[in-house]
Design the sequence.
């Protein structure tokens, strides 16, 4: 990806509200990468805070319930490059993206990058605004020329991140780099209890296909130009959600909604990505140990680190606003995240019980 | 663990042996990735039967392009989906991940700059985070690739990661001297590494040797030899053993030894059970030696300091 003029300042993020369809469309795109901290044990809160203090003196947000979680302040990065499109149309985007890193339960590390792409801004076409303008709107990318919302979202969700020569906006590269930075921290001993692949979770928030009556009329062009302040008077709602497990490590989420708080949407995606990583990782370990279990009553050795480090981290929907809860519930109903998790945990506990029984039997003999 | 595979001379069977080791380690359930850092001739794709990357990857998505900075991340090929050998498809049950990061077709050796070093460091650290075994196949001799990895492994970000060295050499007089020179000689691995900030003794202790294409005088291969020939073979072998010991690359630092095998020599391919038992083209000794080598690679005891 082409990055120009890195604006290295931690920023109070403007809580953007997505405008309704029709009023100069706007798409939120982002990517979350999740991995296991490269450390032999779980980090304490001060250590975790140290990992995500990406700039000296920057404020880290810490929460203790229901699982310890700390988030770095947002970093702003200037971008000027074509935005992805499924049709191959080349439309330049200019603006900034926001990234942040977080540590959950002292064990998992995430980096996420997102940008609100404003399409068809007639005023921006053909005329560059000064960087000061873009810095005043952190996390907004203006795209000149015609490009449909679906074309952009399809292109973004299907791009093979990091695999092609970097000619279009590649948010995955930005957050991958941030995750590397967190993992290279001198606090970490680089001896994780087991190896786990990182996952890439890509998301796009699009306007509803059929906005509620009167809604589009109530928003005007000005809502697009400055959406960094104020909250929607109408409570937000979600129309449609599509979640795809694209391959071993890539997942995509497409949400259609209106009036949603973008900060909460990013939070939702980070939460989903975290739980998807947990499922993916534990499933991988369990599959591997099932093949070699042999039924002898011995606990497969690879299960131990999972019990030690991961089983207690599952806490879905902990930091999600009410208007977005339907997304979790919908995914739970159709894909059964928690059902699958409980089944995996149950199996691991059964193995533990069997191993215990077997060793008791040995002792009695 | 990051394992650097290197040799002083070409044609030692470094790539083919390390590919076989990677496969065996993955079949035992470890997550393994293989990096083709032989920029002059990236042939790991051919050895691993990956048609898409026989002479490196085209389209500028390989390791070379990544290090140069034209892509954000190098292509990673899941070998269980790309190996064109029926015996390995679908992915064998219980096998770990096996991933190839191929070089670029038409790449070449290149001088190293600071940004390249940064990129190399980030890549190796990330792979060490995701995989139990990361095998880096370096080009022969004192190459830019060797300089590059010695530089990045001395950096704080990688110092905590376990890194080990395998020097491959054939079982001949010249090869033994050359391998010892590459490891311990002037501008060799230990020398260059120490100059770049490595702990000299620790680096010295992390080097092991693999002998390739070793004729075994007792094997059935040589059953038809004249008594004079057999005696000469015995004598030469004993001399080479002495030479190796004098060069400080004797048994104490020997990690494995792979016999002479036409399948490795001519075809440079993976040796699977079917090659030994069904097709009967490869020798059982070769397969056993590769198994033993894979086991030693993963066994911490064989890497303990002297």
Sequence:
């Amino acid at each position: 990806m082409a990055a120009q003029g890195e604006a290295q300042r931690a920023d109070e993020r403007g809580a953007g509200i997505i405008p309704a369809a029709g009023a100069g469309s706007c798409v939120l795109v982002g990517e979350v990468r999740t991995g296991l901290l490269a450390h032999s044990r779980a980090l304490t809160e001060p250590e975790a805070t140290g990992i995500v203090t990406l700039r000296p003196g920057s404020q880290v947000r810490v929460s203790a319930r229901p699982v310890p979680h700390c988030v770095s302040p947002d970093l702003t990065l200037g971008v000027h490059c074509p935005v992805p499109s499924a049709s191959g149309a080349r439309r330049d985007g200019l603006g900034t993206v926001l990234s942040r890193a977080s540590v959950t339960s002292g064990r998992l590390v995430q980096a996420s990058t997102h940008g609100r792409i404003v399409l068809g801004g007639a005023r921006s076409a053909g005329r560059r605004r000064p960087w000061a303008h873009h810095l005043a709107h952190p996390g907004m990318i203006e795209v000149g020329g015609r490009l449909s919302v679906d074309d952009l979202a399809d292109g973004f969700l299907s791009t093979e991140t990091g695999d092609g020569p970097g000619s279009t906006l590649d948010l995955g590269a930005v957050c991958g780099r941030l995750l590397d930075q967190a993992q290279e921290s001198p606090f970490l001993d680089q001896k994780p209890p087991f190896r786990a692949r990182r996952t890439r979770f890509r998301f796009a928030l699009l306007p509803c296909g059929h906005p509620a009556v009167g809604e589009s009329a109530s928003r005007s062009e000005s809502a697009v130009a400055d959406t960094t302040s104020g909250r929607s008077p109408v409570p937000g709602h979600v129309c449609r959600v599509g979640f795809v497990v694209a391959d071993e490590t890539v997942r995509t989420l497409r949400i259609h909604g209106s009036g949603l708080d973008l900060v909460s949407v990013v939070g939702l995606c980070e939460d989903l990505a975290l739980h998807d990583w947990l499922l993916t990782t534990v499933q991988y370990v369990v599959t591997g140990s099932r093949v070699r279990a042999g039924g002898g009553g011995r606990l497969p050795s690879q299960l131990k680190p999972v019990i030690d480090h991961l089983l207690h981290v599952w806490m879905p929907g902990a930091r999600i606003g009410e208007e977005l809860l339907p997304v979790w519930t919908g995914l739970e109903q159709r894909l059964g995240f928690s059902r699958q998790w409980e089944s995996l945990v149950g199996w691991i506990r059964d193995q533990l019980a069997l191993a215990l029984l077997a060793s008791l039997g040995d002792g009695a003999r | 663990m990051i394992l650097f595979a290197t040799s002083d001379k070409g044609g030692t069977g470094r790539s083919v042996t390390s590919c076989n080791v990677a496969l065996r380690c993955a079949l035992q359930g470890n997550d393994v990735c293989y990096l083709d850092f032989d920029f002059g001739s990236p042939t790991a794709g051919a050895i691993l039967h990956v048609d898409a990357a026989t002479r490196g990857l085209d389209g500028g998505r390989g390791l070379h392009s990544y290090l140069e900075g034209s892509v954000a991340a190098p292509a990673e090929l899941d070998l269980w989906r790309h190996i064109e050998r029926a015996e390995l498809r679908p992915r064998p049950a219980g096998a770990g991940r096996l991933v190839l990061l191929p070089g670029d077709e038409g790449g070449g050796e290149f001088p190293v700059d600071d940004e390249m070093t940064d990129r190399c460091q980030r890549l190796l650290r990330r792979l060490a985070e995701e995989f139990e075994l990361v095998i880096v196949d370096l080009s022969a001799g004192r190459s830019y690739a060797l300089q590059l990895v010695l530089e990045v492994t001395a950096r704080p970000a990688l110092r905590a990661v376990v890194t080990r060295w395998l020097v491959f050499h054939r079982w001949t007089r010249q090869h033994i001297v050359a391998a010892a020179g590459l490891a311990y000689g002037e501008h060799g691995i230990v020398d260059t590494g120490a100059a770049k900030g490595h702990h000299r003794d620790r680096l010295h202790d992390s080097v092991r040797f693999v002998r390739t294409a070793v004729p075994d005088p007792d094997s059935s291969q040589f059953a038809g030899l004249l008594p004079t020939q057999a005696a000469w073979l015995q004598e030469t072998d004993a001399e080479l053993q002495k030479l190796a010991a004098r060069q400080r690359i004797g048994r104490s630092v020997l990690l494995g030894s792979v016999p002479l095998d036409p399948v490795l020599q001519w075809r440079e391919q993976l040796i699977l059970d079917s090659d030994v038992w069904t097709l009967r083209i490869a020798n059982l000794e070769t397969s056993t030696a590769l198994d033993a080598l894979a086991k030693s690679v993963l066994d911490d005891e064989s890497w303990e300091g002297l």
The first helix of chain A runs from residue 45 to 52. Residues 1-23, 210-233 of chain A have pLDDT under 50 and may be disordered. The two ends of chain A are 66 Å apart (CA to CA).
